[in-house]
Amino acid sequence: MSDASLATAKANPATTLGDSPGITLLQALAQHVLAFDKRQLTKGAIAQARTCILDAIGVTLAGYPEPCTQILLKTPGVATAPGPSLVFGSARRTSALDAALINGTASHALDFDDFSGIMGGHHSVPLVSTLLALAEERGGTGLDIVAAYVIGVEVEIRLARAVNFHHYDKGWHPTATLGVFGAAAAACHLMKLDHSKTTMALCIAASLASGLKANFGTMTKPLHIGQCCRNGLLAALLAEGGFDAATDAFEHAQGFLNVFNGPGTFDTAKLFENWGQPWEIEAKSIGLKQFPCCGSTHPAINMALNLRREEKIDAADIARIEVMPHGRRLRHTNTPHPQTSLEAKFSVQYVVARALRYGVLRLKDFEGDAHFDPEIVRLLNLTTASPHPDMADDAEEQWGAEVIVALKDGRRLARRIDNLVGRGGDNPMSSSELWDKFSDCAARSLPREQIAPLFERLETFEKITEVAQVTRLLEVSELHKAPAKKVVFAPRGAQEAPETTWVP
C-alpha cells in the first residue's frame, strides 16, 4: 500500500481499503490495521477501552494464585527467559512472550473477564496481557496501548461477524481462534510494523490459531488464552524479523476459513463493512461480567435474582426449577451436577440454584467444595434445563433466558429476558461496582495498600506516559505475599456505594 493511500485512509476513517484486484483478505485487513491511528479514537472508544483494560487487569490478578497459573509457572522452561516484562502479582520478570503466556492464562483462569456477544467469546484477554508485556519491552504510552487495544478488538469482532455462529457452534473457542489475530494486529500496531510485516504476522497467526470448546470447564480453557497471547505476539515478532507465510492463508482452499468453518459457512464482506462506524469496542454487545462464571449463564442468573428479590422466594418453599436459556447458551453450560469448581462455572443449574438460595454469586462460590453445599445439591435435584422453545438459533438476539420456579403452594413464578450481554451498553457497571469487583479480585495477589492507587491509576490509563506507572503497582515482593484483606474505598466523586442492581 502506498504512503499516499495510507495518508488518505488516515484522514478519512470511512475509506474502504482492500478493494484492489488481487489483494488477499489478510493483506486488506493489514491495510485497515495500518491505517488506524490515535486521532480516530472517539471519547466513547477510549472510555470503554479504559474500563475493559482495568477489568482485565483485575481478573488477571485474581487468576494469578489459581492452580492453572501456578502449574504453568512451575513447568520447566516457562518464564525462565530473561526480560523486563512482569508476571502480574509477583516479583518475577521475564520475556514479553513468557509474560504474555502466564498473564494471559491467569486472565481467564476464573472466567470472570469481559466478553462480546458478537464474538461469542472474550475480547479483552487476548490483548491486554499481550500489550502490557510488549510495552514493557518496547515502550509505549497509555494512549498507545489503548489505540492498539481498540484495533485489536476491531479485528477480533470483525472476524467473528464473518465466521459466526457456525464457527462457534462447530466447537472452536473464538476467544483463542479469533483472538490470536487480534493479538497479532494489536502487537503490530504498537510495534509500528509496516504493511508487509503486519500482513505476514496475520498470516502466521492463521496457523497458530487453536482452542477447542471440548476443554471448557478445565484448566485448558484459560491455557487457550495464554497460548493465544503468546502466539499473537510471536507472530508479530517473527514477522518483524522477516519470517514469511502465505498471504492467502485465510481464503485458500486449505486455509483458515475453509478448514475452521467450511465452504459456504462464512461471509467475508462483513470483515470490512462500515469499518469503524462505530468502533466495535463501542457496541452494546460488549459486556463486563458481574458474576465469576461463564457469561452464557448470566441472563439466567439475573432472572433468578429478580425472582428471588421481587417475589420474596424462600428456597425451602421451592418444588421445582426450570431454566430455559437460548439454545446456544445452554450447549456448554448444561452441567446438572458439577463435580468440580470449574464445572460449576459452566453449570447454569448450579448458578441459578445459588442465586435463588443466597441472592448473590461471588468468587468464593466457585472454590473448594462450594458446589457440594447440601442446600444447593437439594435444589439441583429439583432443577431441569432445556433450550427455550421461543428463542431461535438464528435469532438476532441470542443472550436470553427464562427461569420458572414452581412453589410447594402451587404458584408458578417466572421471569424472562430476551437479550442480556453482561453489564454494558445501556446497563454499564458504575465506578463503585467496578471497584467492588476489582478490589475483590486484586486482593488475591496484591498487598492492600497497592490496590486503591492501582485502581485510581487505571481510571486514567490513557494519560500514563509509560507503562511502568501501572506495572510497578502490579509488582509484589515475595516478602509481601500474605493474604490481603478486602479494601473499603469510595471512588472519586462517589457519595456512597449504590445498592447492587441486578436488572438490565
TrEMBL record:
<dbReference type="Pfam" id="PF19305">
    <property type="entry name" value="MmgE_PrpD_C"/>
</dbReference>
<dbReference type="InterPro" id="IPR045336">
    <property type="entry name" value="MmgE_PrpD_N"/>
</dbReference>
<dbReference type="InterPro" id="IPR042188">
    <property type="entry name" value="MmgE/PrpD_sf_2"/>
</dbReference>
<comment type="similarity">
    <text>Belongs to the PrpD family.</text>
</comment>
<dbReference type="InterPro" id="IPR042183">
    <property type="entry name" value="MmgE/PrpD_sf_1"/>
</dbReference>
<dbReference type="Pfam" id="PF03972">
    <property type="entry name" value="MmgE_PrpD_N"/>
</dbReference>
<dbReference type="InterPro" id="IPR005656">
    <property type="entry name" value="MmgE_PrpD"/>
</dbReference>
<dbReference type="GO" id="GO:0016829">
    <property type="term" value="F:lyase activity"/>
</dbReference>
<dbReference type="InterPro" id="IPR036148">
    <property type="entry name" value="MmgE/PrpD_sf"/>
</dbReference>
<protein>
    <submittedName>
        <fullName>2-methylcitrate dehydratase PrpD</fullName>
    </submittedName>
</protein>
<feature type="domain" description="MmgE/PrpD N-terminal">
    <location>
        <begin position="27"/>
        <end position="266"/>
    </location>
</feature>
<dbReference type="InterPro" id="IPR045337">
    <property type="entry name" value="MmgE_PrpD_C"/>
</dbReference>
<feature type="domain" description="MmgE/PrpD C-terminal">
    <location>
        <begin position="291"/>
        <end position="450"/>
    </location>
</feature>
